[in-house]
Amino acid sequence: MRRGDVFIEMKGISKRFPGVRALDSVDLTLRTGEVHALTGENGSGKSTLARVLAGLTHSDGGQILLDGQPVQFQNPADAIARGIVMISQELTLAPTLTVAENIFLGRLPRNRLGLVDLPRLQREATAALERLNVHVPPQTRVSDLTVELRQEVEIARALSTGARLIILDEATSSLSEAATTRLLSLIAKERDKGTAVLMITHRMPEIYAVSSVATVLRDGLLVAEVPLPATGAGELVRLMVGREIGDFYGKRPIEPGATVLEVEGLSTPDGALQPASFSLRQGEILGVAGLVGSGKAELGQALGGAIPSHGKVRIKGKPVALGDPRRAIAAGIGFVPDDRKGAALMLVRSVRENFALGWLDRLSRYGLLNTRAEARDVGAAMKDYGVAASSPAVPISTLSGGNQQKVVLGRSFTRAPSVLVLSEPTRGIDVGAKAEIYRLLQDAAAAGAGVIMISSELPELLGVADRIAVFFQGELRGIFDAAASDEEMLAHVAVAGQLPDPPQPKDGGPA
Amino acid sequence: MSAEDAHNSRAADRFAHRQSALTRLTHAPWFGALLSILLVGLFLAFTQPVFATWANVMNIIKSNSVVFVLALGATYVIIAGAIDLSVASLAAACSMVYGLILVAGFSTVPAIVTILLLGAFLGAINGFLISYVRISFLVVTLGTLSIYQSFALILNSGTSISVYSNPAFKPLYAFVNGSLGPFPVILIFDLVLLLIMGGILRYSAFGRAVYAIGSNREAARLNGINVPLVVMAIFIIAGLTAGLGSLVQIGRLTSASADVDPTILMTVLAAVLIGGTAFTGGEGGVFGTMVGVLFLGVVQNGLTLSGVSSFWQGMVSGLILIAAVWIGGLRQLSRRRKQADRT
After folding, report:
1. Residue boundaries of the structural domains of chain A
2. 8 Å CB contact between A356 and A392
3. Which residue of A has its CA nearest to B277?
4. Under a CB-based contact definition with an 8 Å cutoff, are residues A50 and A198 in contact?
5. Residues B39-65: pLDDT tens digits?
6. Nearest-angstrom CA–CA distance, B162 and B165
7. How far is residue B168's CA from residue B181's CA, in Å, rounded to a whole number?
8. What is the pLDDT of residues B81-121, one digit of tens each?
9. Which of B205, B222, B338 faces A304 most closely, judged by CB atoms?
10. Taking each helix axis from N to C terminus, what angle separates B286-305 and B262-274, rounded to the nearest 10 degrees?
11. Cα end-to-end distance, chain A, whole Å
12. Is residue B236 part of a domain?
């Protein structure tokens, strides 16, 4: 088969869920040796389309042609048998098994007695990992690996099955910048070998790095199929959101005030965060960059009192007791953790209760809750932070990721803390909601808060922050003026621990 | 927003509230159980004329009071995402101590206060080991299930203590078995307790903390809730209600016994779960628990009236538990799906 041959053709795919049309007669053509980006805001139907292709969901209408022959996938096994493998953001490895066992799960090599051929398993797993340049001993238990390595093991498994089409569903959302780069180069290599790739993402740099064509969905409809890189990022975003987003980050000048936060030698006992010192002024937004495991996440958790830590933290000159969220809150630190589902939301409770969780002390007297004040404050917060929900009584699990995050942020922002510590505040939410969140955190800064924004996405740090602190292997390696930095130089510090040699100051902000 | 828009949205709000009042009943997780009580009750009323008499209905309430009181405390524990296996043993221990201190000459009120404090103390031991020594609640309460039971047996070498003729017991007896007009005093007591326990859950910061810990412990901690303290308090409440339950038990049996009825723990947990409180935590309430207790009570009563051997009752309760939780899960799933579509 030659490169560029049509491998899969999806024609007029429709899918209804009760009360909503998730896909409305969508076409998609995938060619061998081509990376096809599938993009759109959350809820646009891109994941549903991918799930239909991977046999995880049945479509109501339309057909799928594979090498020109109509096919029907009853279940994922059908799709896998035809060489279609999906890698999703939720990892599907068995954590208690070894890397090798996971790669060959369901198709372990057998010897003549019908038992697992362990030497061969080891050999083939090693080969599969080496092909991808993943340096993990095959006998390691998956639970001992970092999220990034797990993702790479998952990809090794997909490739070792001889997949003809790899579907990546937001596969980079839990990866650091460096791991993403590695993944993208892997994808490019597979593409050049003739594999078709369908990449679902709304991260612009990834789309432009490897894709030659992009399909944009909006509200279940096919908006456009455009060639890349001929189509610019601005145009692509416009297609996704259906409107012009003038300045995405909406950076506005905020006059910094007095020093609000002083940190001296803050570290964690496990060494994940080495002693770090810095200070922050009112109205200032400090970006924090670094790879996964660089200590940037621990910095946020230590400031929020979520983990034990040593060092000195002072807010407006007053020392803060560390290692206790209650003390941190009382001292005026508002911490928003990166794990929205695991550490911030009560998924089974209502929007109202999720807001009020952070305000119980203010809403109650002698332990009794003032439900009238609660209703008033929640109503006001829903309006202030633009939470789209039909009523404060609906379960928060029914909201989109962006709206859930607005509740989490609004909960902290409403207390008007002196310092806001936000860990990955825009992870996993769509473009429109991101722009709103950038606006909200600048509002908080304008109102006098010092803001620390920890993020794995350099473009948003460059777009929103005044200064950017970069962590490397647990150490704070430098704080850079955002206006005088660019992505390349910050990434170099994050990956190598220092500025490129010789250090050449680059002028101008991000393009 | 224009004035007209504001007016419209207010009108929509009002409508939404009215609609939710209408649908809230049918959407409640205990609605299925309530409906089942009515259906089973209707069936029994026709097949067993005795069932629908006032005396029989009051008898159901009286004979399930012990389970009800224990289940109220268990509801708190389960909402918080834990489980207390020790309540029945704890109640037996309280019961034996009550018998002994009455024999030793305690008067009415000091004896009752002592038992409530003892219940709270035994609950606090559970809570302390779980919260501050950080041992799994299953391990701790499985251990104390055995320890408290053994303690109850050791106290009087396994022999029960009759308190019937003890003058200090008389007021308790009168309270548990008395009537106010047509209503048993214990019914009023149950309802007052329900209001207090429900009110705390719904209208106090502590109640919110119980739900918060059950639905996301880490989120609760990061938002300033003192999780270990609240968990300890929940187990103290469970111990307190077990102590209270033991007093109701003695009031009915007129003797303190170290024997733990093996079905009590199952019935208590089943009632809570049938009432819509989820094992996974964060959901449910005491009103549902009341419905659950009544449902099991009505079924048990119906079986007895129909002359079915008591050996069958466990099988029926077990089946009801599994079916109720299964159906509840299905209902919840379909409702969530519908809600997700709307937003």
Report:
1. 6-241, 259-496
2. no
3. A348
4. yes
5. 999 999 999 999 999 999 999 999 999
6. 8
7. 25
8. 999 999 999 999 999 999 999 999 999 999 999 999 999 99
9. B222
10. 120
11. 40
12. yes
What are the distances in angstroms from CA B264 to CA A45, A160, B30, B292, B317? 51, 56, 21, 14, 12
Residue B231 lies in a domain: yes
Pairing state of beta strands A450-454 and A213-218?
unpaired
- The CATH architecture assigned to A6-241 reads 3-Layer(aba) Sandwich (3.40)
Is B221 in Cβ contact with A369 (below 8 Å)? no
DSSP element (H, E) containing A478: strand A475-481
Amino acid present at A498: Q
Cross-chain CB nearest to B342 (options A360, A368, A390): A390
Q: Which of A343, A349, A368 sits opposite B282 (nearest CB)?
A: A349
E strand or H helix at A256, and its extent? Answer: none
C-alpha B269/C-alpha B172 separation (Å) is: 27
SS3 content of chain A, % helix, strand, coil (to 5): 35, 25, 40
Nearest to A395 among B20, B209, B339 (CB): B339
How confident is the model at residue A481, as a pLDDT?
A: 94
Q: How many whole angstroms separate alpha carbon A507 and alpha carbon A489?
A: 11
Percent helix, strand, coil in chain B (nearest 5)? 80, 5, 20
Nearest to B79 by CA among B200, B244, B167: B200
Specify the residue for token string 């026709």: B46
Angstrom distance (rounded) from CA A173 to CA A25 = 28
A3, A217, A238, B309 from A34: Cα distances, Å: 8, 19, 24, 72
Task: Please tell me the CATH superfamily of domain A259-496, with its number.
Answer: P-loop containing nucleotide triphosphate hydrolases (3.40.50.300)
Mean pLDDT of A370-376: 95
A325 touches chain B (CB under 8 A): yes
Residue B48 lies in a domain: yes
Structure tokens at B289: 């628990």
Written as six digits, the tokens of A299 are 């910095």
Q: Which of A511, A464, A454, A465 is nearest to A488 (CA)?
A: A511
Say how far apart CA A41 and CA A486 lie, in whole Å.
27
User: Dihedrals φ, ψ of B36, to 5°?
Assistant: -65, -40
Q: Structural domain of residue B246, as residue ranges?
A: 31-333
Q: Which helix (H) or strand (E) segment is A481 a member of?
A: strand A475-481
Instruction: Over range A170-193, report the average pLDDT.
Output: 79
* CB-based contact B283:B29 (threshold 8 Å): yes
The domain tally of chain B equals 1
Q: What is the pLDDT of residue A20?
A: 62
**C-alpha span between A293 and A473 (Å, rounded):** 7
Q: Name the amino acid, one letter, at B40.
A: V
Question: Taking CA atoms, what residue in B is nearest to A356?
Answer: B208
Distance CA A454, CA A302 (A): 13
Using CA coordinates, name the residue in chain B closest to A368: B204
Q: Report yes or no on B13 lying in a domain.
A: no
Q: Residue A195 region, left (φ>0) first, then alpha (ψ -120 to 50), else beta?
A: beta
Task: Give the C-alpha separation, B237 to A308, whole Å.
Answer: 31
| A327 sits in which H/E element | helix A325-331
CATH code (residue B155):
1.10.3470
Q: What is the pLDDT of residue A44?
A: 78
Phi and psi torsions of A121, nearest 5°: -55, -45
Q: Is the CB of A422 inside 8 Å of chain B's CB atoms?
A: no
Q: Cα(B73)–Cα(A63) distance, rounded to whole angstroms?
A: 56
Q: How far is Cα A94 from Cα B287, in angstroms, rounded to an integer?
A: 41
Contact B223 A391 (CB under 8 A): no
pLDDT bucket at A201, cuts 50 / 70 / 90: confident
Q: Are A226 and A216 contacting, i.e. CB atoms less than 8 angstroms apart? A: yes
Rg (CA), chain A: 24
Q: Are A368 and A374 in contact (CB under 8 A)?
A: no
Q: Name the residue type at position B185.
A: V
Contacts of A433 in chain B (CB under 8 A): none
